Predict the 3D structure of the following.
Amino acid sequence: MYVKSTKDILDKANAEYYGVGAFNINSLEFLIGIVSAAVIKRSPVIIQASEGAMSYAGNGDFRKGAKVLADMVRRYADNIPVPVALHLDHGHDLDHVLAAIRAGFTSVMIDASAKPFKENVEITSEVVRIAHAAEISVEAELGKLVGVEDNVSVAERDATLVDPDEAKIFVEKTGVDFLAPAIGTSHGAFKFKGEAKLDFERLRKVKQLTKIPLVLHGASSVLEADVEKANSYGAKIEGAKGVPFDILKEAIKYGINKINTDTDLRIAFIAELRKSLHEKPSDIDPRDFFKPAIEAVKNVVAQRMDILGSSNKV
Ligand code: PGH
Ligand code: CA
Ligand code: ZN
């Protein structure tokens, strides 16, 4: 079932101390893989689409793309026995936020984290006012997404990662529903040069001071087996490193409830696509290549639902 607001899913996860995966889509194939996993695992699920995904789905027209994606997800959620939400991932301006709200997304992210704190407060407050009037929930971000390396100084960390006291003021002033505090992750397949490491002390303080559902961006685990599979069929992905499962579990203990995952699905899909293209050189039916790739996405999502603790929560 399509939920009214993503808040329904995340408030429950916050109260019961588990994490819910928020999985990015650009097309139907990823949606099928993700929702199939949610049904098998009896898990709530958040589908999310970036500005780029909206543009892609609308062939360059993000407003049209927002509607295409929302109609597709809403229709696909019909008769599905688990809650399905649709979230705008990293909305950067009011145009994209409004497009998502008008299209029927169940929550939006306004990411003004690159702007000074005061401006971030102003923009986020404006989005909260508009979104809440439509009964849609809002996520915002504080700090910059960068890997925490051992050789980074305290001053450098303070300049990039979330300030817990600022987080408290931010949540009070904006009325935002979910907060993404930068604690040392980054987007993509290359998150850490050395050992994977997050600033849990900072996270603990943010949770203690805000108490709302928190979001971990850049949370993909970058599974070695999938990277190797892709590479063995011609990909060149070297030095890839993600957030290991035990660190994800720890982050959830400290108060993370929404776990953003895009890269893991991309790698799983592309690895399987390369493999089946290689194995069926005379086949011209795209579905014969997409189906095993969808299955690969489904498996990654199902495994994450177990790790995050959202399995059997429906
Ligand atoms: C993410 C996804 N989307 O907002 O934060 O991060 O690159 O780790 O999948 P990954
Ligand atoms: Ca940021
Ligand atoms: Zn992100």
User: Anything to note?
Assistant: The pocket of phosphoglycolohydroxamic acid (ligand 1) is lined by residues 89-90, 187-188, 217-220, 260-263 (CB under 6 Å). The longest strand covers residues 84-91. Strands lie at 20-24, 45-50, 84-91, 107-110, 137-142, 178-181, 214-216, 256-261.
